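task queued by scheduler; priority normal; single chain, no ligands, no partner chains; default sampling; output format set to structure tokens
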Amino acid sequence: MIDQNYAEFAWEMTATLLSIDSPSGFTQRAAGWVKEKFESLGFTADITAKGGIVVDLGGECTADSLLLEAHTDTLGAMVSEIKGNGRLRLTPLGGMSANNGEAENVWVYTRNGKVIDGTCQLCNASVHVNKDYSDTKRSFDTMEVVLDEDVNSVSDTIALGIEVGDIVCFEPRTRRTPSGYLKSRFLDDKLSVGILLGFAKYLSDNSITPERKTYIHITVYEEVGHGGSASIPEGVTEAISVDMGCVGDGLNCTEKQVSICAKDSGGPYSYEVVGKLIAAAKKAGADYAVDVYPYYGSDVEATLHSGADIRHGLIGAGVYASHGYERSHMDGIMNTLKLLCGYLEV
């Protein structure tokens, strides 16, 4: 039976991946790292033309293969304008909210290889100067990046090598508390990538080959809606997105549980798969909750929209404050690992 050591490994992998900036469209370095980690565990991993990673976990029965999907792309931003004062207007990548970006440290990645520090601030951010500070609606039109360089004009900023289209990454602020809570931006969905690495290590360490042919697809465009729309291996009839489980008002899941989603904004998940996931959680002793997510979409729905003839499901460790400064727990990792083991009967 899988033990806590694999949860610890999963968090170690997650924490390292969180330190590699990878908003949608800027994922090459993170994808290379993920590929190398799966290969180091003894599995074949290939980078797709789109930039994702497909991993073969083995298995004998290829007629009814399983695909596990998670994503390593995150929210972020892009430079949309260099303003007259040398500061930057941003356009979001994915569902990044201006409210959640205020007063955060950022890094601007230039195409000439420089990384330049800055802060995402409200325009005219001094409370002692701006009488409308509290009443101003936060949006990417009222926010700007203040660069930590001596810039006062468009030409000053261009001289640094910054151009429209450069990627802007937000500091994740990753932390693990003594009580086991995990806090960081972008636990959605790097926590699940870490969990799948922990699951792969469990299979490798114990020389376990799943009876059913099983693949992993680590996608790189989930946050913009088309991550899982390609690279479905031949023979796959079922796909499960391993993403964050929602925690919030009206939902049952906590950060310490694994969530099984019955329905989200894209409609119901496969009744058969949800039932099998519930049965597997019970059998494996995983603390779980079943929920309906009102404002959510997953990689596996992109897989369905691509025309794949599959059954589909969605699970994930509970995560609070999604798309903001997120929080989960080591128990959520462990319960997700238990559910994966129970579902694959390994």
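post-processing summary
- The radius of gyration is 21 Å.
- The CA atoms of residues 41 and 172 lie 27 Å apart.
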